[in-house]
Amino acid sequence: MVLMTYFLIGSIDNRKVGMQIPENLESLINFLLMNIQSDPHHNFSAQKRQEIYEAFGPRTDHQAARARGWLAVITARHVLSIFEQALPDENHPRKLIEMAEATLRGKFSVEEAIREAAEGHEISGRLWGHEETEVTWNAYLAGTAAHRALAEAAGVDPFMRISWIRASDSPDQGGQPIPFDQLPDEKLAEWLGDTAAAAAVAHAYDSDQLKSDPQKLLEFWRWWLKDAITAAWNCMEANDDC
C-alpha cells in the first residue's frame, strides 16, 4: 500500500538539495499525504505527526534531534509573516526564531533556549502587551509557533505533556483523557502541542467561519510534508545554510 501511495502521489524531489531523506521516511510521508488528501477535512492527527518525528530517529541521536529542531524552525518561519502583518512593531517572535537557529548552530545554550521559550510562552499568553482586539487568532498562533520552535530546537518533546489535556474540556469523553489520535489541532494549537499544530491553524483559520479552512489545511500539510521536512533534513548537515 505504501508503494502504491508513492506512485500515486509522486516522490519528493530531493535531487536539488544535498541529502536524500531515508527511504522509510519518504514512504511514510507519501503514505500520510494520501491519508490527509482523502480526509474530507484534511486533518493530520498529532499521532501521525509523531510517527514522522520518530522516523527521524531516536531522541538520543544528535543528528535526528537537530533535524527535528530545524523542522520546527522552518515551520515557525513559514507563518511568521502572519504575526508581523498583524503586529508590525512587535519583534519578539522573530527573536525567538533567531534564538532557535542559534541553538541549532551551537551558538546558544540549550538551558538558555528552554528558559527563553518558557518566557516566550508567558509573553504570548499576555498577547505581547497588546489588547485582545489587536491580536487576531491567526497572529496569536503564529506567535505561539515561535516559542514552540525554540523549545523544540532545544530538544523538548512537544508531546511530552499531552496528557495534561483532559476530557473535562470535552464533556462527551466522560472525564477520561482524550485519546492521542483524537486530539484536534485546534486544541493543540492553543494549549500544548508541536510547532506544526500552531502553524497549521495560524495558516488555515478562517475568522469568518470560526474554524480552519480545509483547503488551507491541505495546502499547509502538503508544504510541511513535501518541502519543510526535506529542507529540515538537509539542514541537519548544512546548519549554516539554513
UniProtKB/TrEMBL annotation:
Residues 32-230 form the Immunity protein Imm5 domain. It comes from the Bacteria. This is Immunity protein Imm5 domain-containing protein. It comes from Longilinea arvoryzae.
